[in-house]
């Protein structure tokens, strides 16, 4: 069955269709959660919660073609809330804990920089560079002209860059 | 233009893509979220059991709303007047003659540190700590909302050096702080039987306000009372309804008295959860000490020794005579203390002779049965936390909340379907298992009773 048909069935309340869809995106959801929360337990809890929220609000899916992104956005919202609530220090500890995963020394800096962006900017960067969603599709989904999205993306990247530069300046002092 | 930034983000994606995904736990999380949503739809009216754990609860949390004007002894009244902040929690202390004595003997340490968030002020009033444990006194005050509408989500004693320390979470439910109406003030205590980490301590409380949880964290330091525990050696054997026990001793500390009882391994009955809830001590003046309900536990799971903590301690009293009575002891025949289920044939192969289990069903890899109990039996006691297959492979039942650390768990659920009936459901393990499944009973509406009196001293 095509994804579109599955989504349409799920919207109508078909449980099996819904579960099939979620299972096919659970890994993507998990990776998004990990990228925000850095911890297996919290990421699993996030997947659980997002499944719950998705099922509750499945009727709000407007465009079946963007179902996956719809899910990812619920996840991003959830993660942002968790980050807001949880103590920043805790998150930093986790990022350090995850460093073992990466041999790249900039990992911590990158995470730190992302944490300082606005929710909107982070969401945009995540969609573009983590989920590989095309600018054109983001524009359609958010009902915003493509040019505007491009401008905002540049702004987000600049803000991201500034995080490093600011840090550098502090070091120079 | 932003090549470097794009490279960084792509590198980040690569790093996170390398993180291993725990597939079975992930499936489970999805399933669980789905079940939760579905259940909410179907069972909106049916009450879902909120209890999370029952035995081996080594903590007692007393929630008492603040009621003033109780008669006080002059010595105690003096202390209340001289220790700042003590007036807030005086009602809490007066419930416990052991604590009153501890305060009269200068064992209370005032702390009086507060944290305020969104109009709610949480105060760590003070502590009493001996070598074994600690009692934390706290108050919650708010003018904005009725304290009654706040729920207690968790209490924790947190040590910076070791990450999380002792913590009690009320996983699904947040019990109301106080059942009283129209109050702006509430006090409570948190009893910790054994403080394991003592460095850089903080006390934490989570309060539920509607959908939101407000977290408070108050760092503090304290001194341990420098007093030795008194050990009253008893070593008396006693037979209750044909079952042999030995009352070993009483270990008396300022904040807690524990009675240690050994059960004879050759007994034909198995002790169930909360076995000694009616145990009582009486001294020569008729003063009584009863147990903390459901707090008796075996420090060694496979051992035969039970520790039964009493509600109040008598460290500062010196009873001349003490007698112990057992009351009803929760116990059932060892041979009968389990149910055996064949999920293929969908039958109970074995169950107690006067069984409370019925209506076994297995549909779509889900088993369920009904538990029937008398009205006055606490239905929340009926609880399984694991089962075993024919090869002794264990599967833990997970009823929600934080996902367990073990991987061999399956989802379970409990639904009260009437005042006397409860449905227990469990998923069959995804991994292979061998029938039959054995559920050991740790609760059962079954007791033994005989008038037996043990002279302690």
TrEMBL record, chain A:
Gene3D superfamilies reported for this sequence: 1.10.1740.10, Winged helix-like DNA-binding domain superfamily/Winged helix DNA-binding domain
Example GO BP: DNA-templated transcription initiation
Molecular-function GO terms, alphabetical: DNA binding; sigma factor activity
Cross-referenced InterPro entries: RNA_pol_sigma-70-like, RNA_pol_sigma-70_dom, RNA_pol_sigma70_r2, RNA_pol_sigma70_r4_t2, RNA_pol_sigma_r2, RNA_pol_sigma_r3/r4-like, WH-like_DNA-bd_sf
Every RNA polymerase sigma factor 70 region 4 type domain range: 108-159
Keywords: Sigma factor, Transcription, Transcription regulation
Domain RNA polymerase sigma-70 region, first and last residues per copy: 21-88
Pfam families on file: Sigma70_r2, Sigma70_r4_2
Matching SUPFAM superfamilies: Sigma2 domain of RNA polymerase sigma factors, Sigma3 and sigma4 domains of RNA polymerase sigma factors
CDD domains named in the record: Sigma70_r4 (cd06171)
NCBIfam families with a match to the protein in the record: sigma70-ECF (TIGR02937)
Family that this chain belongs to: Belongs to the sigma-70 factor family. ECF subfamily.
PANTHER family (alphabetical): RNA POLYMERASE ECF-TYPE SIGMA FACTO, RNA POLYMERASE SIGMA FACTOR
Protein name per Swiss-Prot or TrEMBL: RNA polymerase subunit sigma-24
UniProtKB/TrEMBL annotation, chain B:
Transmembrane segments: 53-72
Keywords, sorted A to Z: Membrane, Transmembrane, Transmembrane helix
Organism listed in the record: Psychrobacillus glaciei
Gene3D superfamilies: bacillus anthracis domain
Lineage: Bacteria, Bacillati, Bacillota, Bacilli, Bacillales
Residue intervals of the DUF5643 domain: 230-339
Limits of the DUF4179 domain: 51-141
Pfam families named among the record's database cross-references: DUF4179, DUF5643
Name by which UniProt lists this protein: DUF4179 domain-containing protein
Top-level taxonomic group: Bacteria
């Amino acid at each position: 069955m095509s994804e579109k048909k599955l989504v349409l069935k799920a919207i109508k309340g078909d449980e099996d269709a819904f579960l099939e869809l979620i299972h096919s995106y659970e890994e993507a959801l998990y990776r998004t959660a990990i990228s925000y929360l850095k911890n297996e337990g919290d990421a699993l809890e996030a997947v659980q919660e997002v499944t719950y929220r998705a099922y509750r609000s499945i009727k709000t899916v407007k465009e079946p073609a963007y179902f996956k992104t719809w899910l990812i956005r619920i996840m991003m919202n959830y993660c942002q809330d968790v980050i807001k609530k949880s103590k920043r220090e805790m998150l930093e500890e986790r990022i350090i804990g995850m460093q073992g995963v990466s041999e790249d020394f900039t990992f911590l800096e990158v995470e730190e920089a992302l944490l300082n962006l606005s929710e909107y900017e982070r969401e945009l960067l995540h969609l573009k560079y983590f989920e590989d969603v095309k600018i054109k599709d983001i524009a359609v989904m958010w009902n915003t002209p493509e040019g505007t999205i491009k401008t905002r993306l540049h702004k987000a990247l600049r803000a991201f860059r500034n995080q490093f530069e600011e840090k550098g300046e502090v070091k120079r002092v | 233009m932003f090549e470097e930034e794009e490279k960084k983000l792509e590198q980040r994606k690569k790093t996170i893509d390398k993180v291993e995904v725990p597939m079975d736990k992930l499936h489970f999380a999805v399933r669980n979220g789905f079940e939760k949503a579905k259940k909410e739809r179907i069972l909106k009216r049916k009450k879902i059991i909120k209890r999370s754990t029952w035995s081996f609860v080594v903590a007692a949390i007393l929630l008492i709303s603040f009621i003033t004007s109780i008669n006080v002894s002059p010595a105690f009244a003096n202390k209340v007047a001289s220790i700042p902040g003590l007036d807030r929690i005086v009602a809490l202390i007066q419930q416990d003659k052991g604590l009153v004595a501890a305060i009269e003997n200068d064992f209370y340490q005032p702390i009086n540190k507060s944290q305020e968030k969104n109009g709610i002020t949480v105060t760590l009033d003070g502590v009493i700590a001996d070598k074994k444990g600690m009692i934390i006194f706290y108050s919650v005050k708010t003018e904005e909302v009725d304290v009654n509408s706040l729920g207690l989500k968790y209490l924790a004693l947190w040590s910076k050096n070791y990450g999380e320390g002792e913590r009690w979470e009320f996983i699904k439910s947040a019990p109301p702080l106080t059942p009283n109406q129209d109050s702006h003030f509430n006090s409570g205590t948190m009893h910790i039987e054994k403080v394991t980490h003592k460095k850089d301590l903080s006390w934490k409380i989570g309060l539920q306000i509607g959908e939101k949880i407000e977290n408070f964290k108050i760092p503090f330091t304290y001194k341990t009372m420098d007093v030795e525990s008194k050990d009253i050696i008893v070593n008396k054997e006693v037979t209750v309804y044909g079952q042999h026990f030995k009352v070993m001793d009483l270990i008396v500390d300022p904040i807690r008295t524990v009675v240690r009882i050994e059960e004879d391994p050759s007994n034909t009955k198995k002790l169930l959860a909360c076995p000694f809830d009616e145990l009582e001590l009486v001294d020569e003046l008729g003063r009584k000490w009863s147990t903390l309900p459901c707090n008796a536990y075996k420090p060694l799971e496979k051992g035969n020794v039970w520790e039964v903590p009493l509600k109040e301690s008598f460290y500062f009293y010196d009873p001349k005579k003490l007698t112990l009575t057992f009351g009803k002891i929760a116990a059932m025949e060892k041979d009968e203390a389990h149910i055996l289920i064949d999920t293929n044939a969908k039958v109970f192969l074995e169950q107690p002779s006067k069984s409370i289990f019925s209506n076994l069903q297995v549909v779509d890899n889900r088993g369920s049965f009904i538990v029937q109990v008398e009205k006055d039996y606490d239905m929340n006691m009926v609880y399984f936390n694991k089962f075993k297959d024919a090869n002794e492979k264990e599967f833990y039942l997970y009823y929600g909340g934080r996902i367990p650390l073990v991987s061999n768990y399956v989802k379970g659920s409990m639904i009260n379907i009437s005042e006397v009936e409860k449905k227990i459901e469990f998923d069959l393990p995804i991994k292979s298992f061998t029938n039959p499944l054995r559920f050991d009973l740790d609760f059962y509406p079954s007791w033994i009773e005989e008038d037996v009196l043990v002279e302690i001293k």
